[in-house]
Amino acid sequence: xxxxxxxxxxxxxxxxxxxxxxxxxxxxxxxxxxxxxxxxxxxxxxxxxxxxxxxxxxxxxxxxxxxxxxxxxxxxxxxxxxxxxxxxxxxxxxxxxxxxxxxxxxxxxxxxxxxxxxxxxxxxxxxxxxxxxxxxxxxxxxxxxxxxxxxxxxxxxxxxxxx
Length: 163
What we know:
The chain is of the alpha+beta class.
């Protein structure tokens, strides 16, 4: 395969993802990248996310809810989908790739890999006493907050503008 031509748009998308821990959707990425590159289209975002994922420069997460999320951290790690707010968080835990050997022992063929997602309640929702912290918003695509940003517990999340 020939090397891809350099693209400032791809660089902008990747740089944005490297600042995030919330695993944003293409729409959240578009809204944020467009602030620096107003002429970029949603189609360009989708095409470049696909290329970056195919090239292994980012990870595409499909958690079974029909919405792809993207992760700039391509190191081996696991994710938890919060059933209360829809957020996706990284799980710091030991590698469980030994499951491949267990699967291979019960399969007449070759097991090449696995994808494991966990479901439960994130720390923020747990601390709120099980309340849904989304404020009625769908946070499954992520927020517009940069990597490492923590909201104070009493901070109300902004209403979604529909844009």
